[in-house]
Amino acid sequence: MAALSSMNLNMIDSTFEVDKLTYEIFSILENKFLFGYDTDTANNSVINSAQFSPIHTKPPKISAGNTAGKVRILCIDGTGATDGILAAKSLAELESCLRRKSGNPNARVAGYFDAVAGTGVGGVLAALLFTRGKDGLPMFTADEALKFMIDNRRRISRSSAGILRRVLRHDAAATKAEKLFRKTFGECTLKDTVKPVLIPCYDLVTRAPFVFSRADALEMDGYDFKMRDVCAATSADPGCVGPVEMRSIDGRTKIVAVDGGVAMNNPTAAAITHVLNNKHEFPFCNGVSDLLVLSLGNGETDFNSVKSPSGFVRIAGEGASDMVDQAVSMAFGECEKNNYVRIQSNKVMSKSKQGKTTPDLLSVSEDMLGQKNVESVLFKGKKVVENTNMDKLELFGGDLIKEQERRKTGILPTVVLKNSSPSPRTSSATTLSTLSSSTC
After folding, report:
1. pLDDT digit string (tens) for 97-123?
2. How far apart are CA 228 and CA 231, in angstroms?
3. Whose CA, among 103, 253, 311, 404, lies 20 to 30 Å from 246?
């Protein structure tokens, strides 16, 4: 994989097909949840296994007597004002909560979620927490992932690097990130994740989002990629590093990728549509009442402090993230308070902290977790609630544990993780991107 320094930000123009993707995703949300959806059918959901290893069984038939269960989804935004530190800190706090409340000192975030989606640095976090290590467990704990992000922030979020590096040394910045990801993930691929994973980038060949998906990697060899390449693609800042050219393991699928935040900074809507349409792995998930969704933001950038094209791409991504939050909140409707939680700062990060040191960003992230949580309200914008972001994480952690405990007495699994498919087919919402990809 090589950085294409000759291709720059000028390739990313107003011809983006973001409107098409947004329309298709939100149409699914509206058709499924807002108009004419019968929530009574949601009671046919069943219970998931807590094991990391795949279950080699066909989806069981639905029985009216089954106890309803909820599919648990983790979604992580792209860079934001904190370069991913807010999301990483949130996950560290959540894992600490899970260990304390469950009584299991070795509890991992990946053990309490059934699917994860992450963009940019959020995609890197998803890879760290959900890629299987040599011992069969996830490679990183949440604390280790936070330390990784702190230690390597400038290598991953190149937009925060110095102006000389951005202008003069595209290749050097890309090489440092590639070496970091190669050392971290080695030869691991999408197939080596412990749970379903979705990590988007933007493909400049097709001018469309491309979603790296564990489900599609297991079904079609042409869509399995090395995790180090996936992380490089989803975090490739178009204004700093430029696009990266990459191929699937078998060499058949080729993309020229830039940061997934260009078109899908908040992957929550894509994650929901993936789960609802992937009936092989989530056979009894019929609607939002069958979901527990945690969406993690990374702070909001001060528009007045942005002076580079890359910064404006970031601002646009953050605006799109808010739009997705509004749409998802609308889809959840009355069950939003219990089933959907969004963690984000409730004010723009002060200019004095923009682009400062990592300790500053860690301190700001801790302050953001102490802020009052902001909820989107159906047709009424946003409101500040009494609970802080930390309070929300604690409550959500309790719900995750209750779901985990309830599954121990369940008859059938909510999630049927697959290992392989006898015939190639597309399982999920990733159809929007993968079917349009360039193959050679």
Report:
1. 999 999 999 999 999 999 999 999 999
2. 5
3. 311
pLDDT value at residue 338: 80
Of the candidates 291, 310, 314, which has an alpha carbon nearest to the alpha carbon of residue 302?
A: 314
CA distance linking residue 409 with residue 69, whole number of Å: 11
> What residues are paired with 74 via a beta bridge?
116, 294
Burial class (CB in 10 A: 0-12, 13-18, 19+), 421: middle
**Does an H or E element contain 385, and which?**
strand 381-388
pLDDT at 174: 60
DSSP states of 229-282 as a string?
HHHHHHT--TTTT--EEEE-TTS-EEEEEEETHHHHSS-HHHHHHHHHH-TTTS
Q: What is the pLDDT of residues 225-235, one digit of tens each?
A: 999 999 999 99
Q: What is the DSSP-derived secondary structure letter of residue 226?
A: B
Measured in degrees and rounded to the nearest 5, phi and psi for residue 4 equal -100, 85
150-187 in b/e form (b: 16+ CB < 10 A) is bebbbbbbbbbbeeebbeebbeebbebbbebbbebbee
What are the φ and ψ backbone dihedral angles of 26, each rounded to 5 degrees?
A: -70, -25
Of the candidates 259, 290, 322, 325, the residue annotated as catalytic is 259
Give one DSSP letter per residue of 91-138, joined into a string: HHHHHHHHHHHHS-TT--GGGG-SEEEE-THHHHHHHHHHBB-TTSSB
With contact defined as beta carbons under 8 Å apart, do 240 and 176 qualify? no
Q: What is the 3-state secondary structure (H, E, C) of 338-382?
A: HHEEEECCCCCCCHHHCCCCHHHHHHHHHHHHCCEEEEEECCCEE
221 is known as an active-site residue: no
pTM of the model: 0.79
The Cα–Cα gap between 248 and 225 comes to: 5
* Distances, alpha carbon 110 to alpha carbons 73, 95, 138, 162, in Å: 10, 9, 7, 35
Helix (H) or strand (E) holding 177: helix 170-185
**Helix, strand, or coil here: 7?**
coil
Residue 417 confidence (pLDDT): 85
Hey, what domains does the chain have and what are their CATH numbers? 71-158+169-409 (3.40.1090.10)
**Vertex 327: Cα angle to 109 and 340 (nearest 5):** 30
